[in-house]
Amino acid sequence: MAHNRTSPMESSWEILKKYHIDEDVGFALPNPLEELPEKYNAWILIAKNLPELIKTGEVREEVEKLPKLSTDDLKDYEQQCLAHLALGCITMAYVWNQGDGDIRKVLPSNIAVPYCEVSEKLGLPPILVYADCVLANWKKKDPRGPMTYENMDILFSFPGGDCSKGFFLISLLVETAAFSAIKVIPTVLRAVQHQDKETLQHALLDIADCLRNARKVFEEIHGYVDPDLFYNVLRKYLSGWKGNPKLPEGLLYEGVWDNPKQFAGGSAAQSSILQCLDALLGIEQTTGGGPAAEFIKEMRTYMPPAHQDFLCFLESCPSAREFVLSRGDADLKEAYDKCVQALVSLRNYHLGIVKTYILDPAKKESRGEESASEQSEQENRGTGGTDFMSVLKSVRTKTMQSLLKER
Description:
Strand content: under 5%
Order of helices and strands: HHHHHEHHEEHHHHEHHHHHHH
Helix content: 40-55%
Radius of gyration: 22 Å
Oligomer: single chain
Structural class: mainly alpha
Number of strands: 4
């Protein structure tokens, strides 16, 4: 195997721990820090007060007053994650300000230099990514209590009231619910290696159940996130500067690069969960070229490097799909198809969410206005800077084509 550092024979947690995957919260950062060493207090203070600073028009002034700090004292991984999250939120606020078209094309060196240094340490791009705003932006109110919406809060938010909290926390809870399926992966790998049909069949059915449960959690978003607030307020602060006509050349990181750089904004496509399941089930989303395949490959580069490595490891393992096909067993095929159908269902639901939270509010906004080509283009682009409906439909189609019925 190309990535042979891990053998399917290793125990479940030996496999997952190697790739920074936590036993309880999966790909999320366990127990994120809330504070940095004292010298970085100003970063945390600004990040915690972004809604108010944006409302009063003071955010840029406060950012420009910051001293340029060395990141040498951010030695721990958890500290670096908190710094990346805080600086990412500050950067989004500085660039987009009140979301009214007053856009900054240059990020000052006092924030750009430390942000890019921390990004390099983590192997992440210098923009707010899913690993920041969802996976590392949470805390429990009662540390001994459960991972439930009622017992959780976020560290940093944007304007729009509780919209940030609802969107980021429901995304995290869907992530942790779906992680139950990832826990079953080592069992699948061992079953394929030992050609254990019965164990594989049970494991596949377990994965399908976990994905159905994740979809139920996803449905809770309607109770916490208002579509108009998401579209008109929060979405603006998640937008990147790649494929975005409002920043066509990208953002200049002063003191780091001489030319502007383009980076995609945070997107659910940057979650490792569904890409892992695609890899496990042999659903080849990244082969054959085309915009969807290229987008999915690109979004991997926005994931923490350890999680990218896990995806590569899964792709290098013996194929569960090929094993199921080679057996020609009707029950095993049915169990595999139930997994695929649960993935299709989750992706269908995501398409519906995109319609409710982006397409419908966009249509409402454009009613009565002359349709401009740029506005039309923006309506169909996600925060990741791509034609998201086309990509999501293509991904769903490839998933459906993986069903083994009639084969």
